[in-house]
Write a structure and sequence with these properties.
Blueprint (H helix, E strand, L loop, with lengths): L2 E5 L2 E4 L4 E8 L7 E7 L6 E6 L6 E3 L7 E6 L4 E6 L8 E8 L9 E4 L3 E6 L1
């Protein structure tokens, strides 16, 4: 099992930046693909970005492509989501997840963090 903890959320004005972190525990952390999802009130949890175990392959939702960058540092058991040019529609609770493959589907991930709130004001 892998325990995941997100951090770095907060309140930011439109156009600003935030960097989210996902700290993992467990000796097998580096073997997992990592994904980021977000969920706004009244909406389904949606895919944001994913990265394979080595960090060599990344995938992004069209809504964040060019603005968000996903990376990982396996030596630190941590994944990062750099969010630039934030928009009010980015407001959501952001969750990190670990799974066997870097998928856009929620059910492909085995472990989830507790989430961190990101609020972007207009």
């Amino acid at each position: 099992q892998v325990l995941l903890t997100e951090s770095g959320g907060g309140l930011v004005q439109a156009g600003g930046s935030l960097r989210l972190s996902c700290a993992g525990s467990g000796r097998t952390f580096s073997s997992y693909a990592m994904g980021w999802f977000r969920q706004a009130p009244g909406k389904e949890r949606e895919f944001v970005a994913a990265i394979n175990w080595s960090g060599g392959n990344t995938y992004y939702a069209d809504s964040v492509k060019g603005r968000f960058t996903l990376s990982r540092d396996n030596a630190k058991n941590t994944a990062y989501l750099q969010m630039n040019s934030l928009k009010p529609e980015d407001t959501a609770v952001y969750y990190c997840a670990a799974g066997g493959i870097p998928s856009r589907a929620r059910n492909q991930y085995d472990y989830w963090g507790q989430g961190t709130q990101v609020t972007v004001s207009s």
